[in-house]
Amino acid sequence: MLNIKELYFNYPQSDFQLQIDQLEFQKGKTHALIGPSGSGKTTLLNLIAGISIPQKGNIIYKNIEINRLSESERRAFRISKIGFVFQDFKLINYLSVFENIMLPYRINTRLKSDPQINDRISTLSEYAGISKYLSKYPKHLSQGERQRVAICRALVTQPELVLADEPTGNLDPKNKKKILELLFKYCREKNTTLITVTHDHELLPDFDEVIDFSKLLVEDAT
Amino acid sequence: MRSLILVASITVIVYIPNGLEKLITESEIRMMDRATSTPLIIGEKGSSTDLVINSLYFQNEKLDPVSMLEVDELNNLSFGYCVPMLTGFNARNYPIVGTTLDYMKFREMTLNEGNKITSLGDCMLGYNVAEALNLKTGDHIISSPESFFDFAGVYPLKMKITGILNPTNTPDDNAIFTDIKNTWIIMGIGHGHQDLADETDPTLVMDNKDGVVTATAKVFMYNEITEKNKDSFHFHGLQKDFPVSSMLFVPKDEKSLTILRGRFESGEIEAQAVVPQQVVRNLLNSIFRIKQIFDGVFIAVGFATLLIFVLIMTLTIRLRKDEINTLEIIGSSRFKVVEILTMEIAIMFIASLVLAFLLYLASGYYVNTFIEKFII
């Protein structure tokens, strides 16, 4: 479903470089990316999402070569196919919970013709246990509740691929479990692919596949 | 809060020069209308501005009076007719204008309700006075003592309201009109008191020789003129010596006006005659010179505000970098981000302009207050 071939990426004026010969993510599976800090896990998520472009190699999603898309095509790809969950939630404080979940529809006209949006927000918020907070603002919510809002925002567009960058990094153990369960439940029900960067090794047994970056990376990138 | 402060700042910067412009323009129109409709004002020599402002706007500045003799003399010249005015008294903070019914005729004032003044002690209220004080025909209004330290000169007089005038959008709406004799009574030149002809009480009568009675301060003075006591009201002295603040002169034609002005200018007539139009024009020219300074200040302040606005928007974008970044990661186009930011700025500008426009419209209602408080 998602194939990465002979990928090479480095940031300008930086020693950092990411080189992957071959990596494949299966549709509907949950994948954990683990590895030391600075090894390029988040960079890989950005490359898959088309936020960054590799200098060499291909990232192919269902026959679409993401790295060959134009800037606007990559944005359109991102908003229509990908749901993003961040460690620091990235909610917009002056928008209500409902407006935050609705945000992808507000910022991209391609999604505006969806007539079931309100029903879906209602269902998702019930699903995530935040339906009573829809009219509240992020500052009134706990960390765990904020991450649920962020997950609802990521899932509201019914993405085929969910990219989560340390989604449990700011949460207590109880909330970590709940958040991950929420993501797993949704992805398994909807046959959605989940790629999660995590440092929480105790959560790894729940994933279908664990990819260790320290073993994956090509040692001599030159 | 940041947006509200910005909206308020832009509103003030946009409104003040425009609102001031409107207030001054409207004030100029109204003041010139009032001045142009008054051909000549005559009064004692002194400040021509005070004479005009007092006669047109009934301000409380005391003018050195002329006498009724001069009114009679001018009338006898047959160049037109004089409308005497005696001002300087108030009732509940509204000026009392002692005059004759010729004033109504000259200003083309009409009654909204009731009748014209017919008897001593009657008065008519300007439309705004009646509205503000909630008074109607048949009610009474008492003149205020001019000063607590001027017991000898000014007596409160309870006047009966016989009519309410129609609105004219001029200072006449804010005045109380009465016969000039009533203002002389308020001044103490005329009064009414209990009959002392046959009184022998020594606490009331100090002397009674050949029908000339000298009364004591204990004598009861009437402060209201009624059917029952009106015959007791009388004036001391000759009417020709009684004071008049100023007079409006209504010439029968342009030639008469020119001849009369010539007599004033040659010193043949000692009093001062001024053309209100010229005095008001000079006054407004001074205001316009000040306004030009204000205009310069507002341009500078407006430019400074614009710079501050740009600075605030730049800092805002910097502070919202994370938010903008989130929008882009989710999939927003750059155009959409720019659109959102532009919309926010546009909304603030439009809100400011709408507020400034509403204030601008509202300014029209305060022209008379502006004239009274800041121009005259």
Mean pLDDT of chain A: 87
> What kind of oligomer do you see?
heterodimer
Distance between the termini of chain B: 40 Å
The structural class of chain B is alpha+beta
The CATH architecture of chain A comes to 3-Layer(aba) Sandwich
**Number of discrete domains of chain A:** 1
Give the overall shape of chain B.
Answer: elongated
CATH class of chain A: Alpha Beta
Structural class of chain A: alpha/beta
SSE pattern of chain B:
HEHEHEEHEEHEEEHEEEEEEHEHHHH
Report the helical percentage of chain B.
40-55%
The backbone outline of chain A, from C-alpha atoms, is globular
Determine Rg of chain A (CA atoms, Å): 17 Å
Radius of gyration of chain B: 30 Å
Termini Cα gap of chain A: 29 Å
Number of strands of chain A: 9
User: The CATH topology of chain A, please?
Assistant: Rossmann fold
Mean pLDDT of chain B: 85
The interface involving the most residues is between: A-B, 18 and 13 residues
Number of alpha- plus pi-helical segments of chain B: 11
**Biggest β-sheet strands, sense, barrel of chain B:** 10 strands, mixed
What does this structure look like?
The complex is a heterodimer of chains A (222) and B (376). Helix content of chain A is 35%, strand content 22%. Chain A is of the alpha/beta class and 222 residues long. Chain A has a single domain, classed as P-loop containing nucleotide triphosphate hydrolases (Rossmann fold). In chain A, the strands form 2 sheets. Chain A has a 5-stranded parallel beta sheet, with helices on both faces. In chain A, α6 links the parallel β7 and β8. By secondary structure, chain B is of the alpha+beta class. The radius of gyration of chain B is 30 Å and the shape is elongated. The model of chain B has no long low-confidence stretch (mean pLDDT 85). In chain B, strands 1, 3, 4, 5, 6, 7, 8, 9, 15 and 16 form a 10-stranded mixed beta sheet that branches. A two-stranded antiparallel ribbon of chain B has the order 2-14. The longest helix of chain B is centred in the last third of the chain and has 44 residues. Chain B contains 11 helices and 16 strands. Classes of the chains: A alpha/beta (222), B alpha+beta (376). At the A-B interface, α2 and α3 of A face α9 and α10 of B.
